[in-house]
Amino acid sequence: MGTAIGGARRQLSMNQATVPRWSTTELLEGCARAGYGGVGLWRHRLEGEDLTLLARHAARCDLQVSSLCRGGFFLAPDPVDQARRTADNRRAVDEAAEIGAAALVLVCGPAPDRDLRSARLAVTEAVTDLAAYAGDAGVALAVEPMNPLYCADRSVVVTLDQALAVAEVAARNGGGTVGVVLDSYHLWWDPRLEDLARDAAGHVLAVQLADWVIPLTDMLNGRGMPGEGAIDFPAFQDVVASTGYAGLDEVEVFNPAVWDRGPAEVLEAAAQWYSTSWCTAYPAPSGAGPARPGA
Question: Which residue, of 3, 6, 123, 162, is most buried by count of CB atoms within 10 Å of its CB?
Fold first, then answer.
């Protein structure tokens, strides 16, 4: 493996959801063998695991935990469920601290009563409350804006400007570090994305990559591997670069056809695309500062 390709791979992270056939330990060891720099983990896959031991194993594999998915789904129709969700989000913060995650990703959840305006205000309050707890734990919170297709069942936060507004209020009033996720699958379509990227400068805590495949066979599980669909990834990379983000880029693909492939094969395919496409050298956007790591 050449130096340029090897350097690019160190900037790449594989999300656990992309290769679910592997256990967490297998994921760590497989990513280390493939030359990756990190992994993104999911809470339900960590149940029953000793997170301290896993964090040590990740360090031995020279891997960062680029994200932990997920917290959020803040709003509930009754007080009992609301209290349960609040407690679960605090557990998510504790788990993120123990595993050493760079950020806890927040998928904010739908409106329990169809009132989107009230729900967005309540989400902001909930993230602010969680930010105070996360700040004490040293955990960064990353609000993920979702594609508008998910507004009814996954999140009322569906644009980057909405996510930035939530993060700004939560960081100011709750303390700690609160930022946003840039996910190509959720944000590629937005005609304001380049302008909003300037507002996101310094506030991006995670980048996730998946493609929009036509026809879309499933809203959740129809995502493509990067480079297989309609997304203009050079343009998306310009957006990422203009924010000054210098963390790992995480491949997160929900698709049964990808899950059926050998995990090592998926890691290699993602790394080859990343090394030859995402990390192709070209000038950073004007005023964006240095080129992206690996470029």
Answer: 123
Phi-psi region of 289 (alpha: psi -120 to 50; beta: other; left: phi over 0): left
pLDDT in tens, 250-289: 999 999 999 999 999 999 999 999 999 987 533 333 333 3
Could you list the residue range(s) of the whole structural domain that residue 99 is in? 3-278
* Three-state DSSP state, 72: strand
Beta carbons of 109 and 155 less than 8 angstroms apart:
yes
Is residue 288 included in any domain, yes or no?
Answer: no
CB pairs under 8 A, 24+ apart, for 282-291?
282/234, 284/238, 284/241, 284/242, 285/238, 285/241, 285/242, 287/242, 288/238, 288/241, 288/242, 288/244, 289/244, 291/241
- What is the pTM assigned to this prediction? 0.92
Domain of residue 239, CATH code: 3.20.20.150
In a domain, 293, yes or no: no
Does any domain span residue 183?
Answer: yes
Token representation of residue 37: 């720099």
What is the C-alpha separation between 132 and 136, in angstroms, rounded? 7
> What region does 72 belong to: left with phi over 0, alpha with psi -120 to 50, or beta?
left
d(CA 213, CA 142): 26
Q: Summarize pLDDT for 217-245 with one digit per residue, the tens.
A: 999 999 999 999 999 999 999 999 999 99
Total domain count, the chain: 1
Residue 291 belongs to a domain: no
179: buried, middle or exposed (CB in 10 Å: 19+, 13-18, 0-12)? buried
Contacts of residue 80, defined as CB under 8 A and 6 or more positions apart, other chains included, come to: none
